[in-house]
Amino acid sequence: MILIGDENISYENIEKIDSIKDISSTKPQSTALFNFDLEILKHTQVNDINSAVIVNNIKEIIYASSLNARYIIVENNLSKVAQKIADNYMFDSKILVIIKDENEIEQSAIDEIDGIIYLDRIEK
């Protein structure tokens, strides 16, 4: 299970962006974190930039996977469906569910979600 933002586990550098222009100010080898935006997603794919995309629905999940997002980030209410789709279609992307408390890790593991992310800690 992937744990991003957990204070007990080291994790890769993830930087929040709002536009393609913001990518130039990120550290090398960082993963760009952004709300679903097709143009940013296409840019990260073409330029081989790791991306973590916050999605809101199944269509966005499909596009994020098709455009090589490293992580597809979902709210809890979409996590089981997202993981089932990812498993069925053998996505290379990993599904991460947004959590706020470490007590949510256990349920995510029971639900067989690829990983968790503490967005509030990453976006600081």
Per DSSP, what share of the residues sits in E-state strands of 2 or more residues? 15-25%
Helices and strands, in N-to-C order?
A: EEHEHEHEHEHEH
Quick check: average pLDDT? 96
Give the CATH H-level superfamily: Aldolase class I
Mass-distribution shape:
globular
Q: Could you list the spans in which at least 5 consecutive residues all have pLDDT below 50?
A: none
CATH class: Alpha Beta
Distance from N terminus to C terminus (CA atoms, Å) equals: 23 Å
Number of self-contained structural domains: 1
Give me the count of strands.
7
* Strands in their spatial order, largest beta sheet: 1-7-6-5-4-3-2
- Helix/strand-derived category reads alpha/beta
What Rg do the Cα atoms give? Answer: 14 Å
Helical element count? Answer: 6
The appropriate CATH architecture is Alpha-Beta Barrel
Can you characterise this structure?
The protein is an alpha/beta fold and 124 residues long. The chain has one domain: TIM Barrel. It has helices at 20-23, 38-46, 58-66, 76-88, 104-110, 119-122, and strands at residues 2-4, 14-16, 31-35, 51-54, 71-74, 94-98, 115-117. The mean pLDDT is 96.
Entry summary:
Helix content is 37%, strand content 22%. It is built from 6 helices and 7 strands.
Protein traits:
single chain; 124 residues; alpha/beta; TIM Barrel; seven-stranded parallel β-sheet; 6 helices; 37% helix; 22% strand
